[in-house]
Amino acid sequence: MGGGQLGRMFVHAAQQMGYFTAVLDPDADSPAGRVSHHHIHTDYTDVDGLARLAGLSDAITTEFENVPAPSLENLAVTRPVSPGADAVAIAQDRIREKSHFARCGVECAPYAVIETADHLAAVPSDLLPGILKTARLGYDGKGQRRVATRAELEAAWTDSGGVPCVLEKLLPLDFECSVIVARSEDGQMVNFPAQRNLHRDGILAVTEVYPDNIPKAAAQRAISAARSIAEGISYVGVLCVEFFVLADGKLVVNEMAPRPHNSGHWTMDACDMSQFDLQVRTLAGLPLNPPRQHSAAIMLNLLGDLWFVDGGEAVEPRWADVLALPGTHLHLYGKTEARRGRKMGHLNITGESIDAVRSTADFAAAVLGLPIPLSE
Ligand code: ATP
Ligand code: MG
Ligand code: MG
Q1: Does the pLDDT of residue 376 top 60, yes or no?
Q2: Average model confidence (pLDDT) for the chain?
Q3: 110 lines ligand 1 (CB under 6 A)
Q4: What is d(CA 20, CA 327) in angstroms, rounded to the nearest whole number?
Q5: Could you tell me which of 91, 172, 100 has the C-alpha nearest to residue 129?
Q6: Is the preceding omega at residue 373 within 30 degrees of 0, hence cis?
Q7: Mean pLDDT for the stretch of residues 286-297
Q8: CA–CA separation, 86 vs 69, rounded Å?
Q9: Mean per-residue pLDDT for 349-363?
Q10: Tens digit of pLDDT for each residue in 166-202?
């Protein structure tokens, strides 16, 4: 379900193991649909489309957390669906997601639910300055507004159309990290190392993974929190949990994604199994082995902005100059039109030591016109 780049990379991993794939996406020319054996382009709720997908499939997964949960329930009547509709429904709604984190004993940023004007009036002042986030459908920082005062909060909620939101206290972040786990139907669970992430303008820009990229205690807490969050919903599939590490060292959970995640793309070139390989294994009911990282890695997200660094018309970046650097692995998603802020691809850089990888990454960033330094 879903034809974006995550679906495309899943399809590649599945096909590598000899599976046939079918993709359902409303777009007739989606990145995953284009490389799949079958492509159904109907709406996610179209009963005929869902029936065709079920007819073609032995098992069904999703690459897109906003697939309507009832459609997953519909499919689950006749086919194994992972992750299940329940888990996806929780991840689709920040309010339910935060309650789930609390149930698992994992702390998130102080917040208030705003569903009515009364809730708005009752918001405690110590949540300001904060970030107002729509409960549903936000991604890449869309659907979020930073608010410093009550008046700004009221205006932001009114601008949202009065939809259910959460107001989160703006926390002083030291850095951000995420953990990807894969859990099978029979409860076997494996995880990748904690990933250190840098966001720019609410969008992931850089992920770095190497020994001691994160203080050991924080990494261990993040891994055990991610595992208990998966365990707490008997999750089946690949799950990513995003965390904040605060200036005082405290770990706070941000949100989760019921699918492979942009911050796990480095696993494609720096591990013996990628997050997409593990998604295939969980879906097919195959054994899970703990993935092994064999190289230090930096992932650079390639947003459409790079096509416009000289202003004017879109110009393809100088890939050959980037690929001349050692340990560079280019992944482009086959999107025909570059737009600012659009995820067009990513560049993985691998090597024996993080110092070597970092100097290559800095070169690559200079060639591409990415802001340097890469990390803060
Ligand atoms: P994604 O594409 O990851 O799903 P999203 O739109 O769901 O993004 P969040 O992950 O909630 O957005 O927030 C985006 C970024 O904004 C975070 O990675 C972090 O850099 C910053 N941010 C979000 N909430 C807070 C907070 N409470 N305090 C400080 N910074 C925050
Ligand atoms: Mg999100
Ligand atoms: Mg996020």
Answers
A1: no
A2: 95
A3: no
A4: 31
A5: 172
A6: yes
A7: 97
A8: 7
A9: 97
A10: 999 999 999 999 999 999 999 999 999 999 999 998 8
- Amino acid at the residue 266: W
pTM (2 d.p.)? 0.96
Going from the Cα of 215 to the center of ligand 1, the distance in angstroms, rounded, reads 21
What's the gap in Å between 174 CA and the centre of ligand 1? 14
Q: Enumerate the CATH 3.30.1490.20 domain ranges in the chain, comma separated.
A: 110-169
- Helix residue ranges, H only, 271-374: 275-284, 319-323, 354-368
Number of Cβ within a 10 Å radius of residue 342: 16
Handedness of CA 89, 91, 95, 96 (dihedral sign): positive
Q: Of ligand 1's atoms, which has the minimum distance to the CA of residue 109?
A: 27
State which ligand 1 atom lies nearest to the alpha carbon of 169. 27
Cβ–ligand 1 contact at 140 (below 6 Å): yes
Atom of ligand 1 nearest to the CA of 139: 6
Summarize pLDDT for 320-348 with one digit per residue, the tens.
999 999 999 999 999 999 999 999 999 99
From-to residues of CATH 3.30.470.20 in the chain? 173-368
Token pair 């019921």: residue: 258
Reported CATH class of domain 110-169:
alpha beta
Q: Which CATH class is domain 5-81?
A: alpha beta
Residue with CA nearest ligand 1 atom 15: 202
The stretch 224-243 carries a mean pLDDT of 98
* Helix (H), strand (E) at residue 167: strand 165-169
ipTM comes to 0.97
Q: Does domain 173-368 have CATH number 3.40.190.10?
A: no
Q: Which of 76, 79, 74, 108 is nearest to 94 (CA)?
A: 108
**Beta carbon of 131 within 6 Å of any ligand 1 atom:** yes
Altogether, the residues listed in the chain come to a count of 376
